[in-house]
Amino acid sequence: MSLLRSPSREPLWKEEFSVFTSDERYVTRRQLAKFLTLASLGMFVGNLWVLAKAYFAKTPSFPSVEVGEAGEIPVRGVKLFTYPAPKDPCILIRTGEDEYVAYSQKCTHLSCAVYFSAKDDRLECPCHQGWFSVRDGSVLQGPPPRPLPKITLERNGATLLAVGVKES
Amino acid sequence: MTNLERSKQRRGLVAIDGAMVLLVILLIIQIWLLSAALETFLAGHTGAVLQAAIFSGLVFLGCVALNLFATRVD
């Protein structure tokens, strides 16, 4: 077969299948416009996926967990506990004689552990000086973008129970 | 090719280039919209995801219109 061919530098398959690589790689303006439109469709589908996830997401159910006894900590004292999972640190603060509040201990900035500053009456993150209100967990100062998640407490006699997490 | 045809072709190319620049700008807006919607969703807020999806759909329709324009322009 090769004897019948005229001398050529190109292999036979390239001569018979005459598609030039340089032409194949050339992208026309219209092809690029089509690609950009398809990318736009991809972004739209992504937004629809987020929307579907948001609307069909299950409402989380929280267990009822015993946090401690009512008189266990002094006024302006704190107790650390975990809720709802054992890896979720929380802080219980006794703000008055019969007043208790609890928040997630993870700073909403970079998840450093916040602590209660009784002197200044606020929750402070030592990493980047983020301050949170002890009344409602709202951000008072610093880089945290959101308030601290509040733990919903209930009293069952003298026992304090954590029954939910409220994201603000 | 006459001067008139050449000028017409040049104008067509400018129009396609303009449409493509607009497409790129719209795509950047959509990327930002998607990242913002995902960020708010992961933060537990779902109030803005519907508006983001509607706006993204409108931007997509704009992209389709620009693509049709780029395809049909002579």
The CATH topology of the largest domain in chain A: Rieske Iron-sulfur Protein
Number of domains of chain B: 1
> What level of helicity do the residues of chain B show?
over 70%
Percent range for β-strand residues of chain B: under 5%
Order of helices and strands of chain A: HHHEEEEEEEEEE
Number of helices of chain A: 3
* Spans of at least 5 consecutive residues with low confidence of chain A: none
| Largest Cβ-defined interface | A-B, 24 and 33 residues
The geometry of chain A reads as elongated
Number of strands of chain B: 0
DSSP strand (E) fraction of chain A? 25-35%
Task: List key phrases describing it.
heterodimer, A: 168 residues, Rieske Iron-sulfur Protein, 2 domains, 4-stranded antiparallel beta sheet, 10 strands, B: 74 residues, mainly alpha, 2 helices, 0% strand
Describe the structure.
The complex is a heterodimer of chains A (168) and B (74). Chain A is of the alpha+beta class and 168 residues long. Helices cover 23% and strands 32% of the residues of chain A. Chain A has two domains: 12-56, no CATH class; 65-166, Rieske [2Fe-2S] iron-sulphur domain (Rieske Iron-sulfur Protein). Chain A contains three helices and ten strands, in the order αααββββββββββ. In chain A, a hairpin with a 4-residue loop joins strand 6 (122-125) and strand 7. The mean pLDDT of chain A is 88. Chain B has 74 residues and is mainly alpha-helical. Chain B has one domain (3-72). The interface between A and B is medium-sized, with 24 and 33 residues.
Secondary structure layout:
The complex is a heterodimer of chains A (168) and B (74).
Chain A: H1 12-16, H2 21-25, H3 29-56, E1 65-69, E2 78-82, E3 89-96, E4 99-104, E5 115-117, E6 122-125, E7 130-133, E8 139-141, E9 150-156, E10 159-166
Antiparallel strand pairs in A: 1-10, 2-3, 3-4, 4-9, 5-6, 6-7, 7-8, 9-10
Chain B: H1 3-42, H2 49-72
Helix pairs in contact in B: 1-2
